[in-house]
Specification:
The structure is a single chain. This protein is mainly alpha-helical and 450 residues long. Helix content is 76%, strand content 0%. Helix 2 packs antiparallel against helix 10, helix 5 packs across helix 7 and helix 13 runs antiparallel to helix 17.
């Protein structure tokens, strides 16, 4: 009997249910598709105000991640997951029925808080049911879930919105949320972490730091820049001195967690800069339709299904070689575009870059998260995931802001600007590979590998 056969169907079903946390991708891409119609539905509302549909949601989820981790430790990870999924569905229904912009934005902020609850608990719940030597493969299958959501969301979302109206975009994730909430008690175990006193002041400082840095990035309110720096410093001081800090310093004392987290942050900045730049390039410079550019964007998403192969290899040979090769390959795809792409359309040039980018991105996506979480103590998984996810959310906003700042106004079509975005994004992926020099070789599972 193989080791995979020893992992029961309930464990695999639990992994599938936890992967439904990728409703965040369905939600985000559907809202992006619907944004034009939302603007038409509220013609007297400024675009900067409508941007809070996304900005308010992002601030809410990023600000509450760490709090959600401690709450999960106290009331149970599975219960927190179910509550988060249920509340996210409620928020989506309210957003879809919103009679005005104020209700719509409020519903989105509510959804962000709900998303924080299931985001910090989904992967820890699933991973703990797999032996350490199979968690890379598990993360690979989670990556398949993300890639699938990324493939179907623009097409399905656009079809629903075209057939009905913008409100359908907010309804799209609700069926999956309901399925996840119903199945979770049957396939996910209940777990709790250490019940520690909640540091209320630490929560306020952390939430303030996350909110102000998110605002300064997404809204380009540069005047706020000193505020998150000061609050972050206060949070670090609080973390070091408080007997029960929101994030325990010994979490970052683990070299695997620390360097894998840094590597992940570099990839998230890079991929979000790419997400915002490539569709704009294809439509603004090459004059492609939205449907054609969406088809081109599907190429790297299809290739990123290699995450299962990457996870299997990581289980047997360690995470470092997988993440190093994947990071350099993705960087090569971006640098290829920066060096060769021009105003004249060229399918070979585009596809070579897409192939390198997609295959490499599939190797470093959720596999990088596995490299961080697989070294954390099982009782600290929710806390470790909360800290990792908070950093990922913040750096994703930075990547988008960098891309939009370089590209400038919507009517800008300069190839040079896009090349600079790809150079910066490629540098992020290259950095993600370089820092793994400090990631220790995994020897502790050598005796268990078959």
């Amino acid at each position: 009997m193989t080791s995979d056969q020893l992992i029961g169907w309930r464990t695999w079903m639990g992994l599938a249910v936890s992967s439904m946390s990728f409703v965040l991708i369905l939600d985000g891409l559907a809202i992006a598709v619907a944004f034009g119609e939302i603007e038409e539905a509220f013609p007297t509302t400024a675009r900067t105000t409508l941007a809070w549909i996304t900005t308010g949601y992002t601030i809410s989820i990023a600000s509450l991640m760490l709090v959600a981790g401690q709450l999960a430790d106290r009331i149970g990870w599975r219960r927190t997951f179910i509550i988060g999924m249920s509340l996210f569905a409620v928020g989506g229904a309210v957003a879809a029925a919103a009679p005005n912009v104020e209700v719509l934005i409020t519903a989105r902020v509510f959804q962000g808080g709900a998303a924080a609850l299931f985001t910090v608990t989904a992967f820890p719940l699933a991973l703990l049911e797999f032996p350490p030597t199979k968690r890379g493969k598990a993360m690979g299958w989670i990556g398949v879930g993300g890639a699938t959501a990324g493939l179907i969301a623009p097409v399905l979302g656009a079809s629903l919105i075209t057939a009905t109206n913008w409100r359908s975009g907010f309804l799209l994730p609700i069926p999956l949320c309901i399925v996840a909430a119903v199945l979770a008690p049957h396939v996910l175990p209940e777990r709790t972490g250490e019940r520690r006193p909640i540091d209320t002041l630490g929560i306020l400082i952390a939430a303030g730091a996350v909110a102000t840095i998110t605002l300064s990035i997404l809204q380009r309110w540069l005047i706020l820049t000193p505020v998150p720096v000061i609050l972050a410093w206060l949070f670090i001081v609080r973390m070091r001195r408080h007997p029960h800090p929101l994030v325990r310093p010994d979490l970052f004392a683990d070299r695997r967690y620390r360097w894998a987290t840094i590597s992940q942050l570099a990839t998230q900045m890079a991929i979000f800069a790419w997400f915002f730049s490539m569709p704009l390039f294809l439509t603004n410079v090459w004059g492609w339709s939205t449907l054609a550019s969406g088809g081109a964007m599907a190429v790297p998403m299809l290739l990123s299904f290699n995450s299962v192969l990457a996870g299997n290899y990581a289980d047997r040979h360690g995470y470092r070689p997988v993440l190093t090769v994947g990071g350099l390959m993705t960087a090569a795809g971006l640098f290829w575009w920066a060096a060769t792409i021009g105003e004249n359309q060229s399918w070979p040039v585009l596809l070579i870059g897409m192939s390198l980018f997609g295959w490499g991105a599939g190797m470093v996506g959720v596999t990088g998260m596995g490299a961080a979480l697989n070294s954390a103590n099982d009782t600290m998984l929710a806390e470790a995931n909360a800290a990792l996810q908070t950093g990922r959310r913040l750096i994703q906003g930075l990547g988008a802001a960098v891309a939009l700042t370089i590209l400038g106004d919507r009517d800008v079509t300069s190839v040079t600007n896009f090349r600079w975005v790809w150079v910066i994004a490629g540098s992020g992926y290259a950095l993600s590979a370089i820092v793994l020099v400090f990631y220790p070789r995994e020897r502790r599972f050598a005796a268990l590998r078959d």
